[in-house]
């Protein structure tokens, strides 16, 4: 498990250990996935059946400035994971993002057939990573996910709850739309994909889509806070990186492949916070 201290990595470690797997968990403090020699040494000694790469440079704003670091983690790292997995006969799983897309003007979710055209450095480095991963992996599994939330503080839902504390009103963009996705949803479906022996590129998000504003209203209802949520344009929030306005994806291909119904994002959200 690479990127094991991140939001998604932590959920994988918890899930696999709870299911009795022997998990070797590493994060940047112990291994940099851009360092091929170090990664090869680790894989040689750990002898994994599969390698799940959750490591990434995820700071969208910072990626505009720290392009080299973003590329190392998001492009060179996945290439190494793919190459080294193939060398040692381990299955490889990697994650990308809806930010490989430029944003649509009409509200129809992106499918795997749509051409990516990233508009910021984060998206560009992630797209390069997708290509290098798929080229070098043998039967690699690549999932594009969006708006992840799970345990931890680096997600919109956690931040929204913090921002709302002690405020009577909060402005949230109503023209930035994608699919909120829990880490639990991702982990359980990736486990199903590994069992089914799938390979290739899949979008992995619940069904439906939401603006940040709609998501904030739902979170407000779940947690019962009083703060008013006010719809504003995303242009109100200064940003160095350009962001797509509508980048929702459809996971129809994935759910057809594993023969399951895809739950709606509202059901996934309520299930996650019902715990
Ligand atoms: N979060 C989202 O909303 C979102 C949306 C779309 C796609 N994704 C994708 O989903 C995957 C998981 O995201 P996440 O939210 O779990 O990310 P995260 O919480 O930022 O976790 C990533 C982890 O990787 C570590 N890392 C960074 N560079 C590394 C390197 N070179 N070598 C080894 N470890 C490194 C990070 O350490 P530091 O924290 O110390 O840098 C962090 O612990 C990523 O591929 C991400 O691009 C996420």
Layout of strands and helices, then pairs:
Layout: H1 7-18, H2 36-46, E1 50-53, H3 60-63, H4 67-88, E2 91-97, H5 121-136, E3 141-145, E4 148-149, H6 156-164, E5 169-173, E6 177-178, E7 181-182, H7 183-196, E8 200-203, E9 210-211, H8 212-223, E10 228-232, H9 252-258, H10 265-274
Parallel strand pairs: 1-2, 2-3, 3-8, 4-7, 5-10
Antiparallel strand pairs: 6-9
Helix pairs in contact: 1-7, 2-4, 4-5
The protein binds NADP nicotinamide-adenine-dinucleotide phosphate (NAP).
Residues 2-3, 5-9, 27-28, 32-34, 54-58, 72-73, 77, 95, 97, 126, 145-148, 154 line the site of NADP nicotinamide-adenine-dinucleotide phosphate.
Structure overview:
The chain is an alpha/beta fold and 275 residues long. The protein is built from 10 helices and 10 strands. The strands form 4 sheets. The chain has a 4-stranded parallel sheet with strand order 1-2-3-8. Strand 2 (91-97), helix 5 (121-136) and strand 3 (141-145) form a beta-alpha-beta unit. Helix 2 (36-46) runs parallel beside helix 4 and helix 4 (67-88) runs parallel beside helix 5 (121-136). The longest helix has 22 residues, at 67-88. It is globular, with a radius of gyration of 18 Å. The structure holds NADP nicotinamide-adenine-dinucleotide phosphate (NAP).
Q: What attributes does this structure have?
A:
275 residues; 43% helix; 14% strand; Rossmann fold; globular; binds NADP nicotinamide-adenine-dinucleotide phosphate; two-stranded parallel sheet; alpha/beta
């Amino acid at each position: 498990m690479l990127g094991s201290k991140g939001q998604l990595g932590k959920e994988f470690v918890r899930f696999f250990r709870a299911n009795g797997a022997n998990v070797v968990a590493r994060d940047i403090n112990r291994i940099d996935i851009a360092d091929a020699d170090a990664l090869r040494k680790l894989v040689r000694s750990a002898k994994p059946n599969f390698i799940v790469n959750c490591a990434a440079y995820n700071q969208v704003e910072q990626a505009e400035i720290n392009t080299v670091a973003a590329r190392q983690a998001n492009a060179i790292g996945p290439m190494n994971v793919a190459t080294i997995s193939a060398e040692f006969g381990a299955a490889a799983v990697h994650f990308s993002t809806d930010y490989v897309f430029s944003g649509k003007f009409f509200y129809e979710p992106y499918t795997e057939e749509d051409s990516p055209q990233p508009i910021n450095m984060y998206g560009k480095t992630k797209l390069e990573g997708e290509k290098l991963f798929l080229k070098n992996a043998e039967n690699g599994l690549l999932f594009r996910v969006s708006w992840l939330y799970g345990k931890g503080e680096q997600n919109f839902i956690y931040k929204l709850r913090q921002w709302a504390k002690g405020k009577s009103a909060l402005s949230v963009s109503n023209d930035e739309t994608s699919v909120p996705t829990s880490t639990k949803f991702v982990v359980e479906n990736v486990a199903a994909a590994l069992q089914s022996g799938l390979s290739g590129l899949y979008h992995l998000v619940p069904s439906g889509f939401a603006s940040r504003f709609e998501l904030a209203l739902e979170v407000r209802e779940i947690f019962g806070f009083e703060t008013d949520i006010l719809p504003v344009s995303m242009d109100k929030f200064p940003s160095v990186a350009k962001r797509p306005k509508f980048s929702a994806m459809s996971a129809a291909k994935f759910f057809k492949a594993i023969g399951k119904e895809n739950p709606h994002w509202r059901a996934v959200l309520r299930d996650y916070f019902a715990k």
